[in-house]
Amino acid sequence: MVRPHQFSPNPETAADNHFQRPAEGSDAQRVAQDAYRELSVAAAALQAQGVRVHLFEDRGERHTPDSVFPNNWFSTHPGGHVALYPMYSPSRRRERRSDVIEMLKTEYRVQDVIDYTGLEPDGLFLEGTGAMVLDHLARVAYTAQSNRAHAIALERFCTHFNYEPMVFGTADAQGQAVYHTNVLMCVATDFALVGLSLFSDPARAAQVRARLEESGRELIELSADQIAQFAGNALELSGRDGRVLALSQRAHDSLTPEQRGRIERSARLLPLSVPTLELAGGSVRCMLAGIHLAPR
């Protein structure tokens, strides 16, 4: 996790991130303070559940307004593999930090770092586990079509990491594509949260449904309104007493009691209050760069 000291919604990404909201009428310093507090409280809540958290600081020297969402610029994989991703927005490319990678090498067994950032000059982007929702068990990379998930970059990742790409188009009520797959769906051990109604092709939605069910997941469908409340932007983590599903309070509150019950048969719900951070167009899952490496 990265704790921001100078948080503000990023105007560079606002054009095609329709989940993003300006901090209208709010004092910039107050917004930054609220974001810092929300991240701090969220990290402490995860640690209280026995989740190991590596917390890095962003003091604002490099002008990286979206640094709170590190899952987009790197990912980690069993076997000691780390991937670095090509980012669509120039300001987001500055989020990449050598100290994060060095920490991973020190604390975990890292065999190699596969660097895709050289694709940026050619306009080929793939924003990590925002652009892809990875089914680590069935080896499927679910990917919504967008300018942040180029087919060539996706093919290279899937070839290197042995995933099958499953690509689909999306459209909200205004006909706008969903900018990142991880606001649309979450694949956990026993269940999957997914907003199939936002798929632009019903036949493709049916194929994704079938693929998830074939993998043994219980499918929990989310409405378009629940997706707008970030209910799909959740991440299953390993806690001290078993699995937890980290999501925002706003997302949690949008779920029905029946949906919550189905989730809690497999994982404890862990709602985190991050309303200021959600102004940037992402939520709890975006704030977490998962570690799938063996500790040293």
Automatic annotation (TrEMBL):
It comes from the Bacteria. SUPFAM superfamilies: Pentein. Residues 1-28 are annotated as: Disordered. InterPro entries: Amdntrnsf_FN0238 (IPR014541). NCBIfam families: citrull_CtlX. PANTHER family: AMIDINOTRANSFERASE (PTHR43224:SF1). This is Arginine deiminase-related protein. The lineage of its organism: Bacteria, Pseudomonadati, Pseudomonadota, Betaproteobacteria, Burkholderiales.
